[in-house]
Amino acid sequence: MDSRIPKPSFLKKPAGPLSLPGNARLPLTRDLVNLPSANSTMFVKMRAPSPDNRSVGSVVNRAKLRRSRSAMDLNRPDFHRPKYASTLAPVASRAGNINATTVAMMASSDLVKPVQANSNGTRMHHLRRSRSACDIAMTSNVSSSTNSSSLSGMSSLAGYKRQPPSTFANSRAAVVQAKVSKMTTIPPRGAGVTGTLSKPLAHRAAIAASSVTTATAKKAAPPVKSTVGLKAGSSAKPNGTDAPKTSGAGAKTAAKTMNKRIPPYDYKARFANLTEKHKALVEKHEKLQEEHASREALQELYDECSRQLGLLKTEHAQLKAELETIRHNNDELNQANKQLTDSLDRTEAELHKLREKYTVTDQENANLRMQLKELEERAAFLEEENVTLQDANQRNTELLFQANIDRKDLHNMVMDLRGNIRVFCRVRPPLTSEAHRVECGWKYLDEQSIELIAMDGTNKRMDFSFDHVFHPRTTQQDIFDNVSPLIQSALDGYNVCIFAYGQTGSGKTYTMDGVQESLGVIPRTVDLIFNAVNDYRRFGWEYEIRVTFLEIYNEILYDLLDTSGTTKDLEIRMANAKNKTEVYVSNIIEETVDTTARLHQLMNIAKMNRATAATAGNERSSRSHAVTKITLIGTHKEKCETCIGSVNLVDLAGSESPKTSTRMDETKNINRSLSELSNVILALVQRNEHIPYRNSKLTHLLMPSLGGNSKTLMFVNVAPFQDCFTETVKSLRFASQVNSCKLQKVKKNKVLNGSAVM
Ligand SMILES: Nc1ncnc2c1ncn2[C@@H]1O[C@H](COP(=O)(O)OP(=O)(O)OP(=O)(O)O)[C@@H](O)[C@H]1O
Prior knowledge:
By secondary structure, the protein is α+β, with helices and mostly antiparallel strands.
């Protein structure tokens, strides 16, 4: 298909040169109109191939073709302008379209979006995108018709459906204005800088929007449809609806003039036409400058918006971080609140329990108060009763004191009836080691009589009577039960003497001291005295207890509490010149004891200091007379009464046959002192005027107990063996003599002006 447009027949070459200077020729209207902006490919593609040089060859030089149609080719003498060339309507400035569209699109979309990297590149990108977007439909149509023919390609432009510029531009402008107004009406957040910047920003935005609106409104005239200008010989028919509304009447006239068909030879008309077009172009240039200014304003607005956006983003990030912190704090507060709520629940539960407990306790408290009130009433009653009872108690104490005195008198009377000197006989059992020894025949007739039968073949029998006879199975407690009444007499203010007499090994020390597992009379007496003293305190009596431990060995006195090792001269002296039976020992240690333990301790000391040795009848024989004296001084402060009693506990040395003795001097002294004791007893029995107390230390010391104001008890201890028969008979005969002795009536010690009368 030949796309060459046939040369119009009416177009003739001018006869002579125009009245232009030199060789210049007026450019064609088409060239002038499309010279700066008609370089688009669309238009190039729509251009018909040059009718010239078709005969040059089969290959067409397209560069030549373009050049042949350029403005410079107008001077060619063979140039033939196509008829339709002057009828081409001026194409609306694409730059103007692009600017308006770009501004509208920027306002609608990109102004509120962050600028990425290079702002210039982005702006160009928007420009390119907007232009390509506008040309999409047209480009596609053109490309599809390029290979057919220019005419068909131009005709295909008729199908180009451009969006109505006025509507599009107006809508874009409206969007821009809405965006700007929104930006200006958004209250500034955070720093005041944003608020202060909003005013110029709004102003610029308003200017830009108004410019865009004006530009787009001016561009509301639709771009010339190619189909109009492409129709050969037909004049352009401006569409009334698409005609520009802001160009004014001059522009309309110029357009009409320009579009008016001017003969080629009418240079004046053509010049006028060109002048009008130049004028239109100048106006267009001014408008483009305004648009450019608006674009710069928009660019500044865009930059400002970007900066604001950056600030807003920073502020947004800060607010986001702050929000995150607040959320974190809120979570922590929620957690703490939950814990506090749990704790509060527990506390309320505990409070509930405590309230219940308080209620119960309050009830109990009320009950207790009632009980307290009752008790107070009861206490008042009891207090009155107590006063009454105290009066009664005082009277009873008086009665008891008097009764105790009566008891003492009665007790002493009984003791007097029993005799002031009494004799108890005790037969010890044979030891396990003494099983081989032959025993005498012992026949216990009653509690007071005993029959001794010799087991040497003579069958000799002897009867003895005493105050009490104790057989070998008698316990220490049974013995002391018969002794304790005498101790009570000592507490009542009487002198008491208890001594053990008998052959060596007959059981004297066992009876008086006893052994650890079976205590004798002395330790039991100590316990009884301290128990009685405690009981007497209830009657108002306070007792002072003093003790001395004396030993008579070979007629010499020794203080058993003296552990100094020095020898002191102990002398037995008369206590009172009027009463020659009361004696005391000078220089002896008399210790006051407060406790039983202390007294037992002193007893052990004395026991260790006592002289002992082995004898034929005893491995550990006491070779001296030991005298333990306990003085009891009772005081009744209320009655101003004092009673002094004493207990002499004597463990005599054992008599020994000179035949069996290995220490004769010791044995002689022992036997002599025992003999003197017998003489005194006999003198008392015979009621002699002279009683030989002073013949021995022992009798001298026991003088108050034997012949004076004393209650005396003698144990006669005998061994059960046949080889002791002679000594046993001697002891029993002596004890019988003592038992027959009737001492004078014992008197109670009197105390006058604090001095004791012994
Ligand atoms: N009633 C008794 N029951 C058990 N054993 C006893 C009894 N009497 C004495 N004995 C024991 O017999 C032995 C001799 O007794 P004890 O030493 O008391 O005799 P004594 O008369 O004091 O002798 P001496 O005069 O030589 O000192 C001791 O071993 C003692 O334990």
